[in-house]
Amino acid sequence: MSKIQDDIIKIAYKKLKQMIYYEKTHLFLRKRLAEFECTEDFEERLRIIDTVIKTKVPTKEKAFQDWLNEINFVLLPKGVSGIDSQSEKGKGTYVTNVTSQENYKIEKVNYIFDGPIELHLIAVLWLMIDGSEIDSKLTRNCMGSRLHPLVGQDEDHSAQLFKKYHELYAKWRDDGIKKARDLLVNEEQSICIIALDLQEYYYRVQIDWIKLRTQTVRPNKTTGFYKTVFAREILGSQLFDCIEAICTAYRQRIAPQLKITHGDIPDNATCLPIGLCASPLIANWYLKEFDEAILTKVRPAYYGRYVDDILLVVTSQFEPTNDPIRSFMEEILVNTGVMQHDVNNLRYELTGTPGLFLQEQKCILQFFDAGHSIAGLEKFQKEIEENASDFAMLPVEGDESPVEQVAYDLLYDGSVNKIRSIKEIAENRWELAKHLSKQTRLFLVAEGRLDTQTRKELFRFFKGRNAIDYWDMWERVIAFLVIAGNKKTVDEFCKAIRSEIKKMSFSKLDDGNISDLLRRAMMAHLDVSLEMIHAVRDTETSKDSVLEHWRTSNLIRHHLVAVPLLNYTEFNGDLAIPGYVADFILDDHKIKWSPRFVHFDECLGFSDSGYFAVTDGDSITTANQIYAKFHGSSVEDVISESADGEL
């Protein structure tokens, strides 16, 4: 018999907090959580959730209805429309570095769920109760947003919810490339690699809630003895009702604006809330039959799906035609009955799930003949491995490369040594992110000043449409400038970004105030980025200030803290450059609600830092005591040994 943990709400809160802590882009929910935890009635609000979900019909409770009424959304741009550097065929090539415009037209937007923390916690609870049963029925080829193995276990008191997304993504991509290489090199078979992308997937799914409900076992009786024996299953059913109610309320909330921004979305589309943790599991389940159809009807050498991104490797003696992608799709996917071609709209519709489409223009087909060179595939695999290594461990040594050298790529058509081969100047988000991370780390470990050239290059890069296209990079730039201690430059950067935001407007006829919603969301994102980073360095925060909420909840970026675990104490000074040594004790609240796993080496670094209150033991013993505060027990196989070998 499965049981419900007595402290299930608190466990759910830890899972939610850790998930949000590692989320890099949408900062609105992060701020909501910081404010939620810092209210005086924080634990009382958790208790109310527990009371509501255990009533006979939670969805009819006044508290739950009040939470539904608070549901809102944040509207974010998916990019600025503009003229490509390449001119029309036969008219030569036009390349320019000018990205400034009088007005930035936004053609596509994303709706992000913005609801009270209580609803997010209910979604986590549903995953804890029902999630593992649904997740276990998915094929191993479904690789995105998979639940952690601990979720659903009776004794799961961990903060884990989903498996690490970057590891899942790497496996999805790397397994496909490795399989392709193995077929080419070891089996000498020609192969096709095709990448497909489902159009507006979260918006177009049409969830059959009755069918989804049948994916978990429910008791026939829910009273008397059965109410005790099947308490977990009964709770799961009640939570399921809540999830359906949340999705329904959200769909109604975004409906007026959705008709303007996504005019061809049918009225019966569910529009899964992006940003609600229950949505990825439901989205994975919705394509379960499609996954099975691919595996049984197409039988590819490799198939992997990462949410709405699909990768196929097929052994094929492919004969290219005037339209190779269409001929491949017809042979492999249409003739097998997995998809059907919508000629009028230049797209493919999934046969088993009507209303879902693949756009022809976003299909990428690569054909490798076993009798020809595979250097391109080899180089691609090598670059992937090098980038993965860079991501895992960014060096802290100084990088003298100027911003403009790492932030741009020249795309060539022919020899890289000929200027006429240049066909486009493209921004390199990955290299710029690495560069900013390294430079920020450098300022943390060594004194330095922001040089004028770096400042100019950053401002040039984030000028014009780049300021909007790269809105998710603002926080990195602000962190770099704040840690570098140049407040004036931070103010100038934010002023420049605000100036570009004011030029944004939605490209279609706007009857729903879409342009204003976009501008307000971007302004708010910039403000939250500033708050979160300033909270690391600000030394004059009052108890109830917004900056103090960031510190108390520990939802700041921990890599900006110079002394390990100093942010887990009552220290209220500059966390990036503490400046003085004093004895501090660990804060019980911050330990209890830690958003991340604390490692032993951090405990050791803190014990040796001079900031921790002196104890009688040596540094190893002290570190073990600190570790035990976080995890309940010390590390048994770590001992202290002197230089001459004596204990």
Describe the structure.
The chain is of the alpha+beta class. The chain folds into three domains: 8-71 and 115-362, no CATH class; 401-537, no CATH class; 561-631, no CATH class. The protein contains 25 helices and 13 strands. The strands form five sheets. Strands 5-6-4-10 form a four-stranded antiparallel beta sheet, sandwiched between helices. β5 (302-306) and β6 (309-315) form a beta hairpin. α20 packs antiparallel against α21. The two termini are 48 Å apart. Residues 84-89, 389-425 and 642-647 have low confidence and may be disordered.
Question: What are the SSEs and their pairings?
Answer:
Blueprint: H1 8-21, H2 27-37, H3 42-53, H4 62-69, E1 72-77, E2 104-106, E3 109-114, H5 117-135, H6 165-185, E4 191-197, H7 201-204, H8 209-213, H9 224-229, H10 231-261, H11 278-286, H12 288-298, E5 302-306, E6 309-315, H13 324-334, E7 339-342, E8 347-350, E9 357-359, E10 364-368, H14 375-392, H15 403-407, E11 408-412, E12 422-427, H16 429-445, H17 452-461, H18 466-469, H19 474-483, H20 487-501, E13 504-506, H21 514-537, H22 546-553, H23 588-592, H24 600-607, H25 619-631
Parallel strand pairs: 2-13
Antiparallel strand pairs: 1-3, 4-6, 4-10, 5-6, 7-8, 8-9, 11-12
